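User: Some background: our group keeps a shared notebook of sequences we're curious about, and every so often someone picks one and asks for a predicted structure to add to the entry. Today it's my turn. The entry only has the sequence so far, pasted here. Could you supply the structure so I can complete it?
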Amino acid sequence: MKKIKVITVLLCTLMLIGGCGTKDSDTDAYIQEQDEIMDQMMDDMEIKGTGNASLDFLKGMIPHHKSAIEMSKSYLKYAGEKAEFSELANTIITAQEEEIGQMEDMTARLEKSGTSDEEKEKQYLKEYNAMMENHEDHETETEDLDRAFAQGMSMHHQMAVDMARLILAYTEDEEVKQFADNVISMQEEEITQMQSYLQESGGGNHAH
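Assistant: Of course. Here's the predicted structure to add to the notebook entry:
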């Protein structure tokens, strides 16, 4: 495997094979965009208390979904529609755009209701902020664009799963519960798909 890698590097350098340099630069550009998207997402997910844990959850998950859409669009821009994860990226875009609409509707309903439980919210935000700190390290290290997407999106999805599991302990809203259960089911399935690819393509990068 090492010999093949060395030969590939030499061919790219000495013979100037067009695809090699372009692929590496595309991967670098994608990873840079991914990091910028994630950094902005972390800023946008800093929650100011609303008095309602369910509302806090939605206000955190909406920017989280928006960043998944941006990451998927960035991947398709650099990898193309025939890439390894083009179908998954398009699925993420479609599903999460729809879910953002659902969350915006739930947000409007909860804001209108005015229900609150500040003591429960206080405990929720304590755990939420601890979870956020645990996910601060989101760097991707690979020279392969497909692996970069799988690594980054696996970590991103795991955060959504952790957020959904957390709110289930603090919400009594049936629509929010159903939404959280759906997030866990769908995104764990997609994590499994990406982790399988990472293992099969040479070493895993487990979501955390």
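Suggested note for the entry: Confidence is low (pLDDT under 50) at residues 1-21. The helical segments are 2-14, 18-44, 53-79, 86-113, 118-134, 145-168, 174-200.
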